Amino acid sequence: MIPEIGHYALVLALFVAILQSTVPMIGAARGDAAWMALGRTAALAQLGLVGTAFLALVYAYVVSDFTVLNVVQNSNSLKPLLYKLSGPWGNHEGSMVLWVAILALFGAAVAAFGGNLPPGLRARVLAVQAMIGVGFLLFILATSNPFVRVDPPPLDGNDLNPLLQDPGLAFHPPCLYLGYVGFSMAFSFAIAALIEGRVDPAWARWVRPWTLAAWACLTLGITMGSWWAYYTLGWGGWWFWDPVENASLMPWLAGTALLHSAIVVEKRDALKSWTILLAILAFSLSLMGTFLVRSGILTSVHAFAVDPARGIFILALLGVAIGGSLLLYALRAPALKLGGLFAPVSREGALVLNNLLLATATATVFVGTLYPLFLDVAGGGKVSVGPPFFNATFVPLMVPLVAAMVVGPLLAWKRADLGGALGRLAVAAVVTVIFALAALYYYGGGPVMAVIGVALAAWAILGAVAEFAERIRLFRVPLADSLRRAASLPRAAWGMTLAHAGIGIAIAGMTGSAMWMTERIVAAKPGQVIELAGYQIAFDGVEAAQGPNYAVQRGSFVIRRNGREIGTLHPEQRHYLVTGQDMTHAAIHTTGVSDIYIALGEQGADGTRTVRLYHHPLVPWLWLGGLVMVLGGAVSLTDRRFRIGAPERRRTVVSASAAAL
Asked: Residue 600 in contact with residue 611, Cβ under 8 Å?
């Protein structure tokens, strides 16, 4: 009975979405307040219906209802409760229900908290949001119904993919989807603005918090995904330029550009058309990621194995959503009024440079990801585009981006003095050089890119601190005055400092793990001591154990340095009983500055064990930097200006006599 309730809740949600996508839009065109108000009620009702369907699916997993085909295919009675709760989004059908639930959540949030929006704009935003919902609800009901029954039901299920039986499944996909779907709000605001023909600073103030929330969630999702890959896959890496990894990076880059472009619209009433285009592209790239995962054209650890018919449906949905929005943009964008003018050397100019580099980086990843697919479809054969291509094209674009990121906030609006801004960064520049030389000395020369990476990391962190110190006039006024200035700063200023510093911390982690990593692969016997980057690691042997739904071969490695014991690691080889698959579960010892990473391999005929050992300098900073960026986004979201909206521009009233003069 519960699955049927979930199924019919989705059907009702579809009809409510159709109502929400039409009536408020017509009401906004006619100026009918009652019709426009229907959008708010429908958005809240849609959240209730889709939420009911999602909870019904979760219930089916928790009670192991093997009369539901989706539960049979992706669960098992022996599976731990955590993976029963998170299992619904570990497969295609369930993840689509989560997708529309988050879509409805954002729509309901605008309905509940968008009281400061003009009624016409809010009605159009909710209508566009519902149009997206109509497409995905149709897709679920027509091709991906998660509530299909199976008769007769089996005694037990097929179990979840062992790769997904990890706590990361409970947190990574929801955060990623909050980012992906969150950009739908920026998209809806952009389409509503094009229909209305009005883009102004107030519009930018309204769209920024939704974009910021999506960006922060996507940043957290990507950070958690890289950590999951790092400790789960057993090869010691955190990013492999996998096509589906790239599919999450592209909307993040476009969303970062959108955040900065919206600031120019809000502050200077400029870059309107470009900001609208970025809002469309950010969500379009999110939709493209959905297509790549579910179309069946990719072979990836992230991809769902589905039939191509579903891919064709999503491709048609992409054509309507992306093609329709770009057509509307082409028709209406030229009518948008140009904003204020500014000199190339200004804060606006720095943000334009930021946008150009981010857009170019997005295009680079787009081409590298999709070119092999296009070539294969065109009959040109299969080619592989991997890390060497992206490292040679993407990374050089990030160098000037980070370098300019520090200078931009110190420039004045409209026209600025570049020399003065650089002068205020003199101390940061000197300390950056010291850090680069120290890295060069400590690592015995090191690759050139490693030194550049350390310099960029130090420059980003110190530059963020220097900009913040400039705002509060640190060391120029008494300390008490500086503290009062810091307390009175807008939360967005604090958030920007944290986000920029987080980027620097993450760059340090990327540089250390990529450039100074030590790897050893040995066939070890019990009692053998392995040297790794100044550590002595003693292999004590392997013992058998039993997990909830898997058998375990658990190794024991004692880590010492200079004769002092530091810790013991227990990497595992797991054999899942239902699927018959084997999984490597690495063990990691971290000092906060570096990681020792050990993965246990197969046993040889001579009794030895293949063991992979890694020493990753600075790699914990990678995830620390990601979390600091998320914290910066969260702090910025608390800025009261996002709650009260943008003020009207002042109009000067001139008397007749003054006008005559």
From this structure: yes
Pick from 96, 127, 162: which residue ends a domain? 162
Domain count across the chain: 4
Give the pLDDT score at 376.
74
Whether the predicted pLDDT of 305 surpasses 60: no
Pairing of strands 564-569, 535-546: unpaired
Question: What is the CATH classification number for the domain harbouring 49?
Answer: 1.20.120
C-alpha span between 587 and 397 (Å, rounded): 35
Query: End of a domain among 365, 388, 411?
Result: 388
Same domain membership, residue 202 and residue 322: yes
The mean pLDDT value of the chain amounts to 90
The string over 415-427, giving b where at least 16 C-beta atoms fall within 10 Å of a residue's C-beta and e elsewhere, is ebeeeebeeebee
Task: Give the pLDDT confidence score for residue 263 in this predicted structure.
Answer: 93
What is the reported pLDDT for 485? 94
* Averaged pLDDT, 459-475: 95
Residue pair 603/554 in contact (Cβ under 8 Å)? The answer is no
E strands, 507-642, are 518-524, 529-532, 535-546, 550-561, 564-569, 572-576, 582-585, 587-590, 594-603, 609-617
Residue 301, domain member (yes or no): yes
Residue 33 domain flag: yes
Query: What burial class does residue 294 get, using C-beta atoms within 10 Å of its C-beta: 0-12 exposed, 13-18 middle, 19+ buried?
Result: buried
Q: Does 653 have pLDDT greater than 80?
A: no
Q: What is the mean pLDDT of residues 121-139?
A: 96
Whether 526 and 504 share a structural domain? no
Kindly state whether residues 170 and 213 are assigned to the same domain. yes
Domain with 125, as residue range(s), is 1-162
